[in-house]
Amino acid sequence: MAEAKAKIAVLGASGYTGAELVRLLLRHPRVELVALTADRKAGLSMAEVFPQFAPYDLPRLTTIDEVDYSGIDLVFCALPHGTTQQVIQKLLATYPKLRIVDLSADFRLKDPGAYEQWYGHPHAALELQKEAAFGLVEIYREDIRKARLVANPGCHTTTSILPVVPLLEAGAIDPETIVVDSKTGMSGAGRAAKEAMLFSEVSEGIHAYSASGHRHMGELDQEYSKAAGRPVTPMFVPHLVPMNRGIYASIYVRTTGGTAEDLHGVLASFYKNEPFVHVLPMGQVPQSRHVRGSNMVFLGVVADRVPGRAIVFSTIDNLVKGASGQAVQNMNLVLGFAETDGLQQVALMP
To answer: What is the separation of C-alpha 82 from the centre of its chain, rounded to a whole number of angstroms?
Structure first.
């Protein structure tokens, strides 16, 4: 007899991260998609919103309130921040055994004051905020296994935490001098029509945005400070580049007496058994195209011309490891599946 599949709902399936969840879950061996929701697109088929799904038998898009959650094992929330708090609070009050992976920013920050600072309003579900596990699997694997609510990290955050946290925990770099120069593709801005996102506004150029206060700084402060055992406030500047997918971070650090080779050794040892983190040989630089469409993270370390300085490079696909792939990785842990299930796609090149 075939093993019963877990029943999965995706709230917010009409956005890029929702569509990426559907793409990944369609080929997952242990799950069945039973509910897909949208707001303005409710009533349509997924193929009408994303024509690549035309060959597949998928549930029609409905509103969140129309879903019968009684038989669902896990819900992905790919909804805007702010509104997600009320949605999840209501769901868990009615169905306390439901498991949820939230792709919004609503439960990533443990400090209510930090959340209010970065998002401009008080948190509306403080008890759930305390309960949520931060969904960066390579750092919090055991916490995630036990969680009913997982807060998927941000895309810039994932790219910049994975290479830096092991170095801070090892005391190998100076926490006061970290500079994160991060570049992201267009899909990170979402699918809504925006004048600033038109092709002619962004092609053939590059520009920084939110240079003095991007919201992902709150996650970097939280995770870097925890790793260092002291407050850390890195410099972080995101840039928009004219590509559809990908994030590429160049991270400038000072060692605490060691060499760039020592930093490479820390990362290679820390991630030696991780299926989705690949540390390149010393001196090699990753390229964003080499992880496109995959759940992989590529890390590289290069020595600066000045002794005691180094550049650490990190790249991911923002829609996969930076959002939906990482969410599936979290689901696999929560539901007791093999962590790599549904995520073994090799990068698309070219």
So the answer is: 18
